[in-house]
Amino acid sequence: MTAQNPSDNDPGPEPTLFSAIITPHRSLNGTGFLLVMMLVSGFSFIAGMVFFLLGAWPVVGFLGLDVLLVYWAFRVNYRSARAYEVVTVTPTELTVRKVSYHGRVRQWTLNPVWVRLDRDEHKEFGIERLFLVSHGRRLPIAGFLGAREKESFALALSGALAEAKRGPTRTVFGSE
Q1: Which of 21, 41, 102, 127 has the most CB atoms within 10 Å of its CB?
Q2: Hey, is 163 helix, strand or coil?
Q3: Side-chain half-sphere CA neighbours of 127 within 13 A
Q4: What is the mean pLDDT of the chain?
Q5: What is the Cα–Cα distance from 2 to 40, expressed in whole angstroms?
Q6: Which pLDDT value is given to residue 106?
Q7: pLDDT recorded at residue 14
């Protein structure tokens, strides 16, 4: 009799049925930001010079303050873009990991057999919110996405949940 190595019975890592990283949409890249800031600064400089030459020199300070406020608003916007969500489905686990723009991590692990996807829909605008519901609790997900993206995400996630609920399948080859 031979001893079996415990690793011989290890089935290995579970297959991933679904995985998505959801990030906030930002339509203005770094080059666009520089262009906007140059335009705002240029406009403020020209307007400031006009006011200065007309003798209204205190206006120049307020125009400079406007440029600083626009810059600050963009920096706050870009900082909030560091938040993201990761949704992963395997045959035995559904994991939702939310990372705030501060870097704070919150994670939920659910059994996909007991999870259903719930939607708040509007007739004109489509899906407004998505929730994972399990044991009477609702976890909001995909809040960064627009209505069309939520529809696509919901379809893919529903398919993965259905596959997890079906359980493992096997391929049977016909006999010759």
Answers
A1: 127
A2: helix
A3: 22
A4: 87
A5: 78
A6: 96
A7: 81
